[in-house]
Amino acid sequence: MRRPLLAFAFSLVCSSHAFALVGNATVVRTAAVGRHIVMIVSTRGNLCTGTAIARDLVLTAGHCVAPPATYRVFLPGIAPPGLPLKSVVVHPRYNPKDYASGRVTADVALLKVDGGLPAEILPAAIATPSTVAPGDRFVIAGFGSTVANSDTGQGTPRAAVLIATGKPGTLQIRLVDPDMRGERAGLGACTGDSGGPAFINNTGSYSVIGVVSWSTGPANTAGCGGLTGVTPLTLHRAWIEETARKLGSPLAP
């Protein structure tokens, strides 16, 4: 059973608690992959993950920022109230009703940070469109919970290697723990990881191929640690590039 992965935990973030990928994921606070991601927090109390793709531009999921609210960017070392935003642009084809009912939609958004991101945050390039096959490996990263239905581990950047399963395409990619295959509890995105990246690892250089949108528990139950659903950027790359130009935010090469 699919579930969205935004966390309602603003008070926890402000009190320096942390978010992380469910399971035994790797802490990446200072590693290259960890320097690409940020937390996104709203006045409604929800938390998601985003990826820097320019010095002042963050890529995230549309469902993370579609509700009317004020959003700010946080990362370890940035105290409340965080970094303000100049603008929030949700993909025009994102449909919240489709998302809520489990149908595929353009679950993508861009956030322009007022004044830019700190120097320790490194923009990631958008991956060149390519065909994804079952068994292909990807790195997901985020600040979400390490235990389903819990705030355990929240706020710490973590990453894990997952593989594509099923019939990946341009509308959706499903990822699983390579050992558990989605049948038993394993690594995967969890609450607070929504909007985080699915990276291609090019010998230590990471490019983002998609945005984390949802998860299931093992054997398609509710929760985390089964499937991780990713919205690939192939069909949305042109919109991202055009919107970045309009916002005056040169994308990472």
Protein described:
The chain has two domains: 3-17 and 34-123 and 235-247, Thrombin, subunit H (Beta Barrel), CATH 2.40.10.10; 126-232, Thrombin, subunit H (Beta Barrel). It has four helices and 16 strands. It has helices at 10-14, 62-65, 96-101, 237-247; strands at 3-4, 7-8, 26-27, 37-42, 46-54, 57-60, 71-74, 83-90, 109-113, 125-126, 137-142, 158-165, 173-176, 197-202, 205-215, 228-232. The strands form two sheets. The protein has a six-stranded antiparallel barrel with strand order 11-12-13-16-15-14. A six-stranded antiparallel beta barrel has the order 4-5-6-9-8-7. Residues 7-23 have low confidence and may be disordered.
- Element-by-element helix/strand order: EEHEEEEHEEHEEEEEEEEH
| CATH class annotation of the largest domain | Mainly Beta
CATH 4th-level superfamily of the largest domain: Trypsin-like serine proteases
Query: Based on CA inertia axes, which overall geometry fits?
Result: globular
Whole-number mean pLDDT? 87
Task: Please give the share of residues in helix.
Answer: 10-25%
- Detail the poorly predicted runs: 7-23
Share of β-strand residues: 25-35%
